[in-house]
Amino acid sequence: MVVKCSNLVKIYHAAEDFRALDEVSVHIKQGEFVSIMGPSGCGKSTLLNTLGLLDEPDRGEYFLNGIPTAKMTDNDRSKTRRENIGFIFQSFNLMPKLSVLENIALPMRYTDTPRRDILPRARELAVRVGLESKLNNTPLQLSGGQCQRVACARALANRPALILADEPTGNLDSKASRDILGLLQELNQNGMTIIMVTHDPKIAESTHRIIRMKDGKII
Question: Which pTM does this prediction carry?
Answer without folding.
Answer: 0.94
